[in-house]
Amino acid sequence: MAQERERGITIQSAAVTFDWKGYRVNLIDTPGHVDFTLEVERCLRVLDGAVAVLDASAGVEAQTLTVWRQADKHKIPRICFLNKMDKTGASFKYAVESIREKLKAKPLLLQLPIGEAKTFKGLVDVVTKEKLLWNSNSNDGKDFERKPLLEVSDPELLKETTEARNALIEQVADLDDEFADLVLGEFSENFDLLPAEKLQHAIHRVTLAQTAVPVLCGSALKNKGVQPLLDAVTMYLPSPEERNYEFLQWYKGDLCALAFKVLHDKQRGPLVFMRIYSGTIKPQLAIHNINGNCTERISRLLLPFADQHIEISSLSAGNIALTVGLKHTATGDTLVSSKSSALAAARRAEREGEKKHRQNNEAERLLLAGVEIPEPVFFCTIEPPSVAKQPDLEHALKCLQREDPSLKVRLDPDSGQTILCGMGELHIEIIHDRIKREYGLETYLGPLQVAYRETILNSARATDTLDRTLGDKRHLVTVEVEARPIETSSLMPVIEYAESISEELLKVSQQAIENGIHSACLQGPLLGSPVQDVAITLHSLTVHPGTSTTMISACVSRCVQKALKKADKQVLEPLMNLEVTVARDYLSPVLGDLAQRRGNIQEIQTRQDNKVVIGFVPLAEIMGYSTALRTLTSGSATFALELSTYQAMNPQDQNTLLNRRSGLT
User: Fold this and answer.
1) pLDDT tens across 411-439, in order?
2) One GO biological process from the UniProt record (predicted)?
3) Does 31 count as an annotated binding residue?
4) Per-residue pLDDT at 87
5) Is 546 annotated as a binding residue?
6) Annotation-wise, does 30 bind a ligand?
7) Annotated domain spans of the chain
């Protein structure tokens, strides 16, 4: 993307397929920026293994943790690559320590750098005791030579490597019993005689079990250390056969794939990226989408190479394919060869379930787990340049939403404005930029609305009667409800019914009552924001015969609103987890600024020469924070945000907010 080239960051994940030493590798590059968490989530969903790229001078950063947790959730074996070893301030030791401390992982050092920062000129392979030196005249890391370490030429380095190798062998033996038996049996006297292959197999097993993480280093800019990294990927990360997916046994070799990404191409229409779990895909093949319950035909099949694509005639399991012609498939959909193959798989799953006497509805679970889409945290309004362009804007937003499910577009019923909900400032900015470049629309972004929530502090009762005559029908409903706060956090109101309410009445009108309660809780009494953490009890309900359900619903809704108004009300505001990395000299202005933003500092850690401030800040106060922080610290500080929870506002801030909303200040 043009935006990626300008900013020098990854925004969208890109897929490349290539061959390395007889292995076919499907590589997906995902963004590291917090605004594009969804891209990482949906790619991890279909990968078998991952390489976590860390900056050797910064070690584990805020966002590394987020991505690491996502990989833990999907149980993905991974390797760490310490990049930028030639950058000033790069420290191999520090970076490894941060993996141990922050990620709580066991690093297995498979390489040692020769020199650091400016002096970084090669690396040592600990497993095979060889050194790799780059050609000093050439700036490209492709020119390198591999030599065994000899006592004559590098006595110091050999000693250090032997110690590292012995430590590695002990570490792996602790984690892998099969290897431990081998070491204790044949090679207990002399670890040097242990063949490299045996150690490599053991590291492979340990990586798959996710009990430890191999660590390699290099500098990607100059291609330094990339070849050994690719060797490590083929050697230690799992192949598709080694990942055990429970649902595959039901499909018995029939097609089963997961669509994990949709891109819009001006000429070809939607391009769907899919991971094939079993079976093969060919062009002109009709496939059945279980989620959408529809059948579509693939017109062409492509192999992804970043922005170039190569047309192919078929693709087998374990690969990542790009398909043209699927109009209705969205991110997270499960695709199979036909409806009957899905039903056959469901039957197999059911039979298996009966054998094991467990009622897990694996039949319904034929759907591969989709992709969890994070909640948006950043909101703004978007306006087309003129009313005539509104349909074009809606089309552009529809295409962008299909590509990026973490972008939500809402119509505000009160103001009639189109609201963009995204993952952050940068996310919305990129969307705005793309609408301009790809769809040729100059749009205007308006100020952002913070999604407040409301709750009540004590219980309140209310009764309400609705008496209407429409035509010759009389509609009469009388309701008494009680609203009370609950301890557990729940977005939807908890609905309870008193003993006195008859079953017959409930049978007819329960749906209407619940609709009424839900619609009342969508707009709270203070700001018109959703009400959370409340329980609504229906104490009495009398309905005149012939009253329509809409009237019941309307009366219940009005009554619940009355009860909520009576109670003591409280506004809840979204709190962001904030982590600011800042140089010592700038610490006090940053802390001062956070105090003004009603921030709550939890702790201040030290990371090399930097301070890391960890705390909570209300979302309302974080608008434009990135710009403010850069100004305060001359562009040296970085920060990461994620939505933490909703927290009650103190009365003073709440009054200020309400006055501002009602136009009094």
Assistant:
1) 876 566 788 888 777 888 888 998 998 88
2) mitochondrial translation
3) yes
4) 85
5) no
6) yes
7) 49-236, 247-354, 378-451, 455-567, 572-662
